[in-house]
Amino acid sequence: MLVVPAGALSWHRVNLPPGLLSRSGQPRTPARLRAVLEGLLEDQLLDEPAQLHLSLQARSDSPGPHWVAVCQRSWLRSVMDTLTRAGHRVQRIVPEWAPEVREAPSPEIETANTLKLPRPLWITGSEDAAELVWSDTDGVHRRNLASLARGPAGGADATAALHLPAGWADQAPLWAEPACAALAERLLRREAKVQARTQRLQACAAADWDLASDEFANRSARLRRATEAALVLWQGSAWRPARWALGLLCLVQLAGLNAQAWQAREALAAQRSVIQSVLLTTFPYTPVVVDAALQMQRAVDALGPGSGQAQSRDLERILEAIGAVSPAEPAPLAMEFVAGELRLDMSEGVALPGSSALMSEGLQARSYRLRADGPRWVVSP
């Protein structure tokens, strides 16, 4: 995650024309949104809009003016290229500080805003190069404390020099980085909560902003959102009952599948036992049962020559089956009968007697199989 420092961004509010954004706040046509933003911000920017990267706020579905973050395109591209060469893949680009998004006006919200405490005051940097930062619905505000740091102890004059909103000096939560904690307490005459800069930058991950748009857009943004949603479902305490229910459902399904598989195995074993019983009852001299159905068929075929009746592997039965499915087709050039298989040699350009599909289906209905072996057609039980 790339965190853009406050000094690299400027913030501007614009009123977008209706129909430019979808209900979810996403631009319907990114190229058209870029052109509209360039036109609206042309008089507010010092550089040419083509040289700048413009990013609309994440909650663009809210009514009223929208915040636009602006930074140098070439600078952001050089940072991205440096990270890429170092083997890092940027998933999101977030600002170090961002304005507070104004909610939809309503009597309830207006009443809540009157009772809402000010946003925190932050003093960052070092004691010799300290900076006071806070954000509200009017933007991101920064005050250089270099002159105040070299002056006398804080007081009313120091507070007035910061140009803080009314009541913020005494009521707003005060945070400071370790190097600036003493300066913060000296200027504002009250205790400051200390947090390391690395922890504060990690907290930027919770911001709704994502400056990775246009050429910096992450092509796998949908995958990232799906991954984040999966992590929320997996780790969020609010989803714990749903996770338990899903786990119990999986266990019930697994138990049901195992029970069904056990029943299927028992039914299959019972059928095999019945077939083996029929084989051993009909042919009690069978030494070992390996494949009951195949052994039964071979035993029945072995009884055929002794009874004087034609069997399925005899030539006359195979010819009778072929004649039944293709009685009026040209005869083959030659026939060869070996080990229960009849091979038909067809002349070049002459198709198999009858339609191959119909003949195959007809022979299959009579317990015979038809297959091709080069120019020959082989019929076997």
Please characterize this protein's 3D structure:
By secondary structure, the chain is an alpha+beta fold. It has 13 helices and 14 strands. The strands form four sheets. Strands 8-7-6-9-10 form a five-stranded mixed beta sheet. It has a four-stranded antiparallel beta sheet with strand order 11-12-14-13. Strands 2-4-3 form a three-stranded antiparallel beta sheet. Residues 104-115 have low confidence and may be disordered.
Examine the coordinates and then state which fold CATH places here, giving the name of the CATH topology of the largest domain.
Nucleotidyltransferase, domain 5
Low-confidence stretches: 104-115
Portion in beta strands? 15-25%
Q: How many beta-strand elements?
A: 14
| Sheet with the most strands, sense and barrel status | 5 strands, mixed
- Computed over alpha carbons, the radius of gyration is 42 Å
Instruction: Quickly count the domains.
Output: 4
Order of helices and strands: EEHEEHEHEEEHHHEHEHHHHHEEHEE
Distance between termini? Answer: 70 Å
Strand order of the largest sheet: 8-7-6-9-10
Average pLDDT taken over every residue: 78
Q: What level of helicity do the residues show? A: 40-55%
